[in-house]
Fold this sequence. Notes:
Layout: E1 2-7, H1 11-22, E2 27-33, H2 36-46, E3 50-54, H3 62-71, E4 77-82, H4 88-95, E5 100-103, H5 108-119, H6 127-136, H7 162-172, H8 177-183, H9 188-202, H10 207-216
Parallel strand pairs: 1-2, 1-3, 3-4, 4-5
Helix pairs in contact: 2-3, 3-4, 6-10, 7-9, 7-10, 8-9
Amino acid sequence: MTTVLIVDDQPMQRFGFRMLLESQDDMTVAGEAGNGSEAIRMTAELHPDVVLMDIRMPGLDGIEATRRIVASGDRTRVLILTTFDLDEYAHEGLRAGASGFLIKDALPEELLSGIRAVASGDAVVAPSLTRRLLDAYADHLPTAGSAPTDPAAHPRLTSLTDREREILTVIGQGWTNAEIATRLHLAESTVKTHVGRILAKTGARDRVQAVILAYDTKLVRPS
């Protein structure tokens, strides 16, 4: 049973989500929150599998709430709801640690499948779309500052093998496992093993966060 915390400042919106989720045999609503502060408190109390997070709310917004929930180390994953598919809010939500985002007017089956995907550890946003987001908002990326000019020297990448670093690079470029297997002449099962090791070694929560890591460490640069 997947438990979901609904976070939205509009009561009617929360009601609609609750009705949809409670119509499913494999989902239950853990609770409802009307702003980011409530979302953080209720996540700490209830430990839901997924937080369905609105962005624009009074007080603490969904971006900062996501950042604090992820930073707490809780196993809960956050699914951002946004109005537009390629806006700065979605970009900031992913960088805050969300496992994906959906458009608010998504079809019911898209929302349900997105929640199930996030709950199972997958990312809802395709890596190629994540790259488009990062490219579109490259000006918002933090400057390298004192970070190593050689990506291989970055602390989060030093434990990677040459092959793993190569695969992280093409993940950052939006390649799927099947594309990696074909282009690098590997079995897809081998690629999956490499991806799993990359996530474990770098501390990336999922494939979307791996794409962001590839940008942050300069393995991949904006187009």
